[in-house]
């Protein structure tokens, strides 16, 4: 067992207080909380950018922003949401829950844990600050395709350094999670008895370690093309612009699963709790998750069907991509089989989890349609793709994050979240989400390209609808803030086992979880 | 109308007639679905998408039928007591294997279409489409019309975008010089770009091919129906990515031959422009038009630019100083910036005119007339 000695083993109150407590903390619960707060702030920042985009697209013509700034907004919305909101939020869940779920006293590398969090605000300041430098933020799209990204101003350099820093943070976080899970499980908890959330995070952590350096390499090559006369991505110097896309998507596609596998894990914890029935097909869930992770390394070029690959290349990546539907389908079937003949109740976390299955599956269907290379060539870089990835990233990752937050809030705060507020949040979110993103399928099919500040007149109705939905969706997220603040301040006292059907070690410690838990390793089963 | 995408006259009448009988269906087709295909490949894509949608719909109904049955019937409040099963090998094998067969059924037609899309052999006409920030250039390389060269700019006036004028029917999807091709012929499109990656996309043809600087890619289409078909640049290419549409006129073989003759006559006339001597006023007048079509998006109508990305021309040293330096920049561009190399894009007369214009407008008053012969000489160096 790794010997982790917290700075203040016996009493939480012996350490520094005030701000210094948070800056110097090595406690996984404190760090988890900071990750979650950070990601929510970034979520709101990225949301403001999205709403500015939707305000501009409310009707044809240029009303709110100019094209250059519009492109900065679409780019930064993507970067902030991916690297600032979704990824850190899942790391926050990992920090809070993995030690509690496997019966460990803390994360394996407690000081490194502190460092991996505190890198993030630095990266965020660089990223958001780039709006205020001459030339503004990078406007090359979140994919930062060369040679467009070579043309950008110094905002691009700031984004590159921000990505470097966030990558370092992610890799350290991932190493920490791998080591914690492999070495610090309670006696009796074999790998195949581990909660599924830990499994999905273990696999995600390996993906992170594998691909974050790839992204760092890609953006570093852009950096040297920009300033040091190299020609990695310029044909004039013997390079190739398409090589950037290969490298980027070799990172980018596993990244998609980095953002969804932990969501699968959260949902797999919640559904059995509220079905009062064990998870159906635990082993096949583990194998399906692993298959998705392995396949994710061989499908990257399905993002590049329009670059003009040879037919054999298109066919290989099409078949490989279609194959991912199989393990993903297995997961959905397993969740539904878990609900089947259960004793279901629909408290807020369960609503979010069922909403997740329903809407995420729609994103899965459009994903399958996009996998078909000829159809993808029609819808590539249109609003259809925008609709598709928001169905899997918002209705997928984000909804699962909300499900997890409502599920574990009692453990974190000691109070039950207000059911009325939570349900209001859910119903507003799912209705406005669909008003926002469903019409985008039609826009894309009818021929509206993405990343344009203005559009032809036949797209006006659905854009107006999407914009109205977006403002509804954005405002609905403030309900979550109310729910969390209310839950922190008070409310019905939560029992150690806060939900009737909840299973697992985290429900054996009191609510709220004391500052230090499992100083003596529990015996599992 | 059909939501804005233009059709031939016959097509319009057909739509008008069918509107009377089946208006929801027609509206549904243009607003909720892929555009009406006019090539064999696009039709295959259209049908494949419909098939996929139906398969997904069936799966959707089956899967969520089961889920919502559980949601409504297996509730604790309905007195449901939880069963305790948690695995079933045969069911698990079934729902792994059956999807594989469904996928095989989907992959078969898709494979055939991929192979057909990639078969660019034996074209009747070959056209090179070059992406520039932010316009398309076309060179007819082979077949009838060989040697024709045109540059296609957005023709929607700025005032419509700013809301100072009412928006026209083809707002943002109209150009000054469209691509013209004959109906029923195999047209091979070679794509490339001069600065960043663009993408040449005409939805009704089922063609979307990235245009990559320094490389040539190809695609093809054979339009079965005369008409005007519109598309956009599909790859983010900077500031005015949303303002470089594609307009293809598919015409009868006779109309095409006539268009080719007109283009060739116009090119012969333009060749004369580059050799004669021009007066200052004449150059400024022409230069203003060239500036409006090519330069205004970045350097702005008042010549102040949008610093720092797009520098001002008004009062700029390079515009007021030695014309050789300015000619050099306009001809060769500034690598690593959006400033394109216009040497291959505009005629000598146009380049001379636009340079003369910038040197004699706003507060720039050099009084110099730059002649097309000077441009030709600079190119020779």
Automatic annotation (TrEMBL), chain A:
Where would I find the Cytochrome oxidase subunit I profile domain in this sequence? 22-525
Q: Which InterPro entries match?
A: Cyt_c_oxase-like_su1_dom (IPR023616), Cyt_c_oxase-like_su1_sf (IPR036927), Cyt_C_Oxase_1 (IPR000883), Cyt_c_Oxase_su1_BS (IPR023615), Cyt_c_oxase_su1_dom (IPR033944), Cyt_c_oxidase_su1_bac (IPR014241)
Transmembrane recorded as keyword: yes
The protein's location, in the record's own words, is:
Cell membrane; Membrane
* Record's keyword terms, sorted: Cell membrane, Copper, Electron transport, Heme, Iron, Membrane, Metal-binding, Oxidoreductase, Respiratory chain, Translocase, Transmembrane, Transmembrane helix, Transport
Q: Where are the transmembrane segments?
A: 35-55, 75-96, 117-139, 159-184, 196-223, 243-267, 279-301, 316-337, 349-375, 387-409, 421-442, 462-485
Provide the reaction this enzyme catalyses. 4 Fe(II)-[cytochrome c] + O2 + 8 H(+)(in) = 4 Fe(III)-[cytochrome c] + 2 H2O + 4 H(+)(out)
The way it spans or sits in the membrane comes to: Multi-pass membrane protein
- Asked if the keyword Iron belongs to this entry, the reply reads yes
Q: What class of enzyme is it?
A: translocase
So, what pathway does this thing act in? Energy metabolism; oxidative phosphorylation
Q: Which domain of life is it from?
A: Bacteria
Could you say which protein family the record assigns here? Belongs to the heme-copper respiratory oxidase family.
Q: What is its biological role?
A: Cytochrome c oxidase is the component of the respiratory chain that catalyzes the reduction of oxygen to water. Subunits 1-3 form the functional core of the enzyme complex. CO I is the catalytic subunit of the enzyme. Electrons originating in cytochrome c are transferred via the copper A center of subunit 2 and heme A of subunit 1 to the bimetallic center formed by heme A3 and copper B.
The protein in question is named Cytochrome c oxidase subunit 1
- The organism named in the record is Aromatoleum diolicum
